[in-house]
Amino acid sequence: MGKLKNLTEIKKIVTDLKRKKKKVVFTNGCFDILHYGHLKYLEKCKRLGDVLVIGLNSDASVKKIKGKKRPITGEKERAAVLSSLEFVDYVITFNDATPAKLIKALTPDVLAKGGDWKTKDIVGGRHVKNHGGRAVSIPFIKGYSTTKIIKRIKKT
C-alpha cells in the first residue's frame, strides 16, 4: 500500500517502530505547492530521528486554514508527491484544523514544525514532552513559500 497510511495502520507501525527503539519524527502541513523550502525542511526533520511521518492536511482542512481558494493541489496529489520523497517514510491525511488528535494517537518522539512556531506553541508539543519526547522548531529558508509562489504566478 506504499507510504500513505490510515490511522489504524500508522498507529500499528509507530508502535512497532518504538518497540524496536526507532525514533519517530512527526511533522505536518499543507504542502500545497511543494518547493525547495519544503524539501530542505523535510530533510532536516528526517535527520532528527529514524522515521519521518508527515501529517498532511486534507483539502477540507486546508480550506479551513488558508481559505476557499486553497489548496491549489488536491490531497491525493500532494500525498503522492510527498510519498515519492526518499526521506519521507509515511504520510497520513487528517481532516481537522490541527493535528492534535493525530499527535496524541501516535505520540512521536520528536514533533517538528517550521520556524514560524515557537516550540512552546507547537500544537501537541506538551503531549509529546509529557511522554519523554521533544518539540523542535526548524528555521525557514528565506524566500520560499507557497503564498509567494502563487503571487509570482499571478504577476506573470
Describe it for me?
The protein is of the alpha/beta class and 156 residues long. The chain has one domain (7-155): HUPs (Rossmann fold, 3-Layer(aba) Sandwich), CATH 3.40.50.620. Helices cover 41% and strands 18% of the residues. The chain contains seven helices and five strands, in the order H-E-H-E-H-H-E-H-E-H-E-H. It has helices spanning 7-19, 36-46, 59-66, 75-83, 100-106, 125-130, 146-155; strands at 24-29, 51-57, 90-94, 110-114, 134-138. A five-stranded parallel sheet has the order 3-2-1-4-5. Strand 4, helix 6 (125-130) and strand 5 (134-138) form a beta-alpha-beta unit.
Largest sheet: 5 strands, parallel
Q: What is the CATH superfamily classification?
A: HUPs
CATH class: Alpha Beta
Q: What class would the helix/strand composition place it in?
A: alpha/beta
Low-confidence runs of at least 5 consecutive residues: none
Q: Portion of residues in helices?
A: 40-55%
What is the ordering of alpha helices and beta strands?
HEHEHHEHEHEH
Q: How many domains?
A: 1
User: Strand share of the residues?
Assistant: 15-25%
Q: What fold name stands as the CATH topology?
A: Rossmann fold
Alpha carbon gyration radius:
15 Å
**What is the terminal separation in angstroms?**
40 Å
Number-wise, the strands total: 5
Average pLDDT figure: 94
The coarse silhouette is globular
* Tally of helical runs: 7
In the CATH classification, which architecture applies?
3-Layer(aba) Sandwich
Order of adjacent strands in the largest pleated sheet = 3-2-1-4-5
